Amino acid sequence: MRVKGNLQLMKEINTAMIMNLLHREGRMTRAELTKITKLSATTVSALIEELIGKNFVEEIGEKPSAGAGRKAITLQINKDGGYVIGISFGNRYLICAVLNLHGQLISEYKTKIAFGNDSLAEQIHSALRECMDQAESVRSERIKGIGISTPGIIDEQEGTVLFSSLLRLTNFNLRRQVAAFFPDVPIKIVNDSNAAAFAEHYSGAGKDKSSLVYFTINEGIGAGIILNGQIHSGYRGSAGEIGHIPVDSQGEICNCGQRGCVETVLTSPFILKRCQDAARELGVAVPADFEEALARYDDGEAWLEPIFDRILDAARLMIASAVNFMSPEAVIIEGWMNRSAKFSDKLSDAMEKFPFPFPFTRDRVLQASFGDKGALYGSATIMLQKIFSASVLD
Length: 394
Ligand SMILES: [Zn+2]
What we know:
This protein is α/β, with parallel strands linked by helices. The chain is 41% helix and 23% strand. The chain is globular, with a radius of gyration of 24 Å.
């Protein structure tokens, strides 16, 4: 029995390896798979036959192979071999989407996020209904997994959001809410910044970088860490809370109760208030919203320079602390900074000048590829990876 168990496990691991390679690389031949996995050609062929039989892999014609003139058949994941649902809870929106096995969107439903346990529970149910209605061709029994990203501290085992100040959630059992619709489908819940960091690492700006730190800076600050290709979520999922590093003991009171956290310097509501106060004092036109303040800074209005210089300094210190501590290959930034070419450029410049052991050159400060959809794609991708392990495919 024991030997058989080990053989079964080996088969599952090898199948997962092949599926993940096909997912990540797109199209490959049996010979290419054999070369990369270092499995025998016979093993690869046998596993591929099984996957084709189950409709998870398909043959898509021939491509000329080097030299010999013999043509090799290309393989890819059958995109309609199953579907996943991605749900992302963001600062402002709830997005629910159905994706095929290539990670392409089939349907998407987006709505302003509700707050508190009861309202959000209701919203999840209506979002799932809307999304499945829109994806008419997808019957619910073809859903193979559900990936969910949410802000806050998460108990991944239980599928519970222990606490999220942003969404005003306390001990909210997310898995139970979703399982009411899809009782037998695997559900994975991931912190939103971790999910977005993973998406960037897997197929975005940080592809092929084995370690990176991802920052999302908007109304709040989030960070996600990828170490050796894996999410580093820390003790009970609480890594990456970099927004509450104090940078100004005389600063403003933060949502966490401390004074002068970096979040009170770098996030849009605090920046807007500072710009509006300064405008009133100087007798210039008061910016109506954050986007206006940012556009006027980019246009070169001199009175905004000292305000944004202070922000730049705090951003520089926050990112430099993370770089000194983690030494990632790259830093990926999502949020308002990407909408100001001037600010982004100054930040890259400041990082390049910072005295690290190895210079943090401009090509290591990257803008996120997925924008504010990183968490959605990330949670769906994590679910796809889980599905591609044979135990779930059966
Ligand atoms: Zn704080």
